[in-house]
Write a sequence for this structure.
């Protein structure tokens, strides 16, 4: 059930859906603010990396760090990168794993986008 400012959209690949949520997220984050500030949940590793690839240039232009966290790769580097990032794009399983390991906290998250 949609409420408030929720938006539901369906459109073909390459139509700009990621930028439609990525640009407003990047615009609302201060580079000197707390980290992480935004969390985007992605159901698969492929979608997580695609989202990061799509918003990396926008984030970089605002001096923001964005990191994908997903299973199948080393935990140590991902956890360090995630803790330093403003925007985390995560698959649920790896997010839960990193939170249990106390790699970072979600208490500073101000924006959540569950893909």
């Amino acid at each position: 059930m949609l409420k408030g400012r929720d938006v539901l959209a369906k459109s073909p690949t390459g139509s700009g859906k990621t930028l439609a949520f990525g640009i407003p997220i990047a615009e609302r984050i201060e580079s000197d603010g707390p980290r992480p500030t935004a969390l985007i949940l992605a159901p698969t590793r492929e979608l997580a990396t695609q989202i990061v690839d799509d918003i990396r240039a926008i984030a970089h232009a605002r001096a923001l760090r964005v990191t994908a966290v997903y299973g199948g790769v080393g935990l140590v580097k991902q956890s360090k990168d995630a803790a330093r990032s403003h925007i985390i794009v995560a698959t649920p399983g790896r997010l839960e794993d990193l939170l249990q390991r106390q790699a970072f906290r979600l208490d500073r998250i101000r924006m959540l986008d569950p893909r």
